[in-house]
Amino acid sequence: MSDSKKILVTGGAGYIGSHTAVELLETGYSVLVADNFSNSEPFILDRIRSISGKDFVFEQVDLSKQEEVKALFDKHPDVDGVIHFAASKAVGESVENPLLYYRNNLGSLVYMLESMLEKGIHSFVFSSSCTVYGQPDKLPVDEQAPIQKAESPYGNTKQICEEILSDTVNASPELKAIALRYFNPIGAHDSGLIGELPRGIPANLVPFVTQTAIGLREELKVFGDDYNTPDGSCIRDYIHVVDLAKAHVVAVDRLVNGNNKKGFEWFNLGTGNGASVLEIVKTFQEVTGEKVNYSVAPRRAGDIEQIWADTQFANDELGWKTERSLGEALSSAWKWEQNVRTELKK
Ligand code: UD1
Fold first, then answer.
1. Distance CA 68, CA 86 (A)
2. 112, 118 in Cβ contact below 8 A?
3. Kind and range of the H or E run holding 265
4. Distance 47 CA to ligand 1 centre (A)
5. For the chain, N or C: smaller number of CB within 10 Å?
6. Nearest CA to ligand 1 atom 7
7. Global pTM?
8. Per residue in 96-152, pLDDT tens?
9. CB count, 10 Å around CB of 179?
């Protein structure tokens, strides 16, 4: 089993990283978290410790700096596998500052792979995105669907990172990598102690909904009600972050135990169900009893109309499937929103 294996989690103080660190610790892995708090808060580290009842090592590292990555691996050459979350992820910001995205997202990946190969560390799990599919011709979208030209520098970094992984695995067959293509992660840990913590005005739907419900925002703008969907609003596949985190444990298990079928594999991580923006608002109101003020606004540039995952391949190959409902995801997001506002007022 995985008992004594050590996993480096980059971006482990962040949204998906913190939930994955909890799941790894609870599975019996030893964990090393690397984060620079560029988009996360230090108090999350203690929350991971209190949820899991386990300790872990933390290193503050800027992974876009080669010498810092080198120093990290020099200090911890005994890592068995890496889950690499650390990256910039705001679509709009990437359009305004593409070089920041290319430096952070591509630079860090290259430096990490170089150091890993140098130290003989051969298991790598990468955070990718369904954004690589653009608007697919066929729904649900499966892993064989063609990659489409990225809509943003952020999306482009995900595509290029997958290519870097594929090329590096070809050149160094001892390296094994899995790219996990996330659909829309939402929700929070059942404890309400960790969750999504956007800085400033949230770009993503669910944090905007919870911040509107708590009174921090006046109203949600629903970006478009004239799409070719049943209620006219866009459709996405919203996956509970705890289900997503568990998939990372399964993926890293597969690599460190040598159960992968190909050197580079990629999987969709979604529920297989689509929900529209208006359905999200309605379900949120139903499960929390809170009212969300909203109005319909023009379409947001760059949004695709609808996408949801074909989960068959991930279900069959990884033996993983989602267990939590949309309602559970939305009520956990609400629990977290209430908790974190109290924390931030302290
Ligand atoms: C985007 C990116 C995805 C990235 C994710 C996390 C694309 C196509 N997708 O997902 O790759 O991983 O962000 O940063 O680039 N909405 C509103 N009002 C709002 C906010 C959102 O109506 O205030 C709608 C959007 O139009 C969309 C849905 O809610 O239809 C989900 O939006 P969002 O949470 O931003 O995620 P994506 O755009 O799907």
1. 14
2. no
3. strand 264-269
4. 27
5. C
6. 131
7. 0.97
8. 999 999 999 999 999 999 999 999 999 999 999 999 999 999 999 999 999 999 989
9. 22
